[in-house]
Every structure is written in C-alpha cells, then in structure tokens.
Amino acid sequence: MDNSKNNNRYNPLKRFVLKGMAALGIAAVTIGLMAGSAPAQSLLDRIKNGDTIRLGYSNAPPGAYPGANNEPLGLVNAIVVDILKKMGTTKVESVVTDWGALIPGMQAGRFDIITGGMYIKPERCRNVLFSEPISTAKDALIVLKGNPEAVHSFENVRDKGLVLVTGSGYTAVKIAQDLGFADDKIMQVAGTAEISQAVKSGRAAAGVMDWFEATKLAASNDGLELADPYTSPVPRDYGAIAFPLNEQATVDAFNVVLKAYMGSDEMMSSVSKYGYTKDNLPDGTTTAAACNR
C-alpha cells in the first residue's frame, strides 16, 4: 500500500510539536544573549557587597609591602584598608609586582586598585583615575655613608659622569633624561631594594626614590644615608590611589570618605608607625591641578 499521500497530509499534532520546539529554541537564544550582555559588576558595587578587593603594589616599604602572610602593610595600604572598610568591605588581597608593571597590571585586570602611593603625574592621568591626594613629599637621594662622591643633586651626578639608579617606571627616569643624562648613566631596576643594592655595591653613585622609602632605607641600613642637603629637580609630589579609567563612580565615592578621613586621629593612628606625620598631609592641591602641572 502506498502511504505517501497520508504522510504528506496536514498533521496538527506534528505542527504543534514543531512550534513548541521552535519557541523553546528562541527562548534559549534570548536567555543566552541576555546573559552574555549582562554588565559586569562595578568595583563600587563589589565594595558595597563586601567582596574581596585586590590591591596592587610593589614591595616598597614604608609605603606598601606584603607581610608574612601576604597581608597588605605600609602607610598607603593602611589608608586604603581603612577607607574600604568604611565603604563596605574588609576583604582585601595583595598582588605584589614590579613598580613598572602596576598600571599595565591593573589595565589587564590583575588587580582592582593600585596602592603603591603612586604620584599624580600628567602622563599617568591619561591611563588611570586618581583619588584626591593622600600625601605630599619630595623625592630623596640615597648615597653611601659619608657621601664620598659629594653629590647633592641630579646635576652633580650628571656633571661628574656618575651613574644614577632608580626604579623602572619612576618619574626620575624621564627627569634624568630631560637633564641630559647619557642612557648608560641611568640604571633602572625593579624597586627600592634593588636601588639600595646598586648603591651599596658601587654600581651607582646615588639612588633616587620616594622620600618615605629613602628615609626608611637610611634608618635601617648603616651603609646608606640621605644626601643632605639635596636640591630636587621637581616640586613637591602628591601621592594618591589609582583606579581603572572606567571606575569614576568608585573614585567619587572613595573621595567622599577620604575627605573626612584625612588628618583624623584614626588616620594618624594607622600611619604614624610608618613615619607619616602631619607635615606629609596634602596641602590643598587637587588631583585635577596635579594632573595639569
């Protein structure tokens, strides 16, 4: 018996099933698209939700350094941990990296905030958002005890044909280049520990770094001291906390809490053990002004 005519006849049950399957397929695609387009949580939302926030910094006491259990220590970390607690989270995680890798690391999503006490500079303002300043200080020159080369400025080091050592990514690199240092007279290393070793070993006559770091090094190392007097080639710098460029709401919320916190007894209790004094409090210069210097 030929059943071809019966097989081609209209079958309402079959049509119903096919329509149902099609509808389920469309729904699945719609749900998938919705899930794929759902916006990621902002950093501010994560802080308010009490999520773990990753702090990126280099090992540079007393500003920021890891403890025995990788907990974030140092004056900048102390400030950030206090502020984050007030904003909603006590959970933080350290991500320690070389100074020069801090901005690229945050841009790559390895951590959420840079807490290394980074100075506000116009070129950096194009790559990160800064909080309002948390400190003000000048740089300093580290030399061997007794300052045998009698250097008291960048120009002294340059004119004597000596080697200046500083951190890779530090602003001192560009300053030295602008002052006419030959490339082979500018040694770039990972951070403060390496700067110290270069000076102690005689591979460099002087090392330039943040005043807080230099003071800490000189106090803990009999073989080193601060060049005194020292004439800095730059005006006072302003340290701040750095955030990704798409986190303006987070920066705004952070600044609100920071404003009430700066100079408070609570703050000074947290940072005084790291050598931060009232003299290091910001002088009223804003981040906007520092970005346009």
Describe the structure using short key phrases.
293 residues; alpha/beta; D-Maltodextrin-Binding Protein, domain 2; 2 domains; five-stranded mixed beta sheet; three-stranded parallel beta sheet; 13 helices; globular
List the helices and strands and how they pair.
Blueprint: H1 4-7, H2 12-37, H3 43-48, E1 53-57, E2 65-66, E3 72-73, H4 75-87, E4 92-96, H5 102-107, E5 113-114, H6 122-125, E6 129-130, E7 135-137, E8 139-144, H7 154-159, E9 164-167, H8 171-178, E10 186-189, H9 192-200, E11 206-210, H10 211-220, E12 224-226, E13 237-239, E14 242-243, H11 248-261, H12 265-271, H13 287-291
Parallel strand pairs: 1-4, 1-5, 9-10, 9-11
Antiparallel strand pairs: 2-3, 6-14, 7-13, 8-11, 8-12
Q: Structural class given helices, strands, pairing?
A: alpha/beta
Q: Tell me roughly what share of residues is in helical segments.
A: 40-55%
CATH class of the largest domain: Alpha Beta
How many domains is the backbone divided into? 2
Query: Major sheet: size, sense and barrel closure?
Result: 5 strands, mixed
> Alpha-carbon distance between the termini?
94 Å
Strand segment tally: 14
Structural overview:
With 293 residues, the chain is of the alpha/beta class. The protein has helices at residues 4-7, 12-37, 43-48, 75-87, 102-107, 122-125, 154-159, 171-178, 192-200, 211-220, 248-261, 265-271, 287-291, and strands at residues 53-57, 65-66, 72-73, 92-96, 113-114, 129-130, 135-137, 139-144, 164-167, 186-189, 206-210, 224-226, 237-239, 242-243. The chain is 40% helix and 16% strand. A 5-stranded mixed sheet has the order 10-9-11-8-12, with helices on both faces. Strands 4-1-5 form a 3-stranded parallel sheet. Strands 2-3 form a two-stranded antiparallel ribbon. β9 (164-167), α8 (171-178) and β10 (186-189) form a beta-alpha-beta unit.
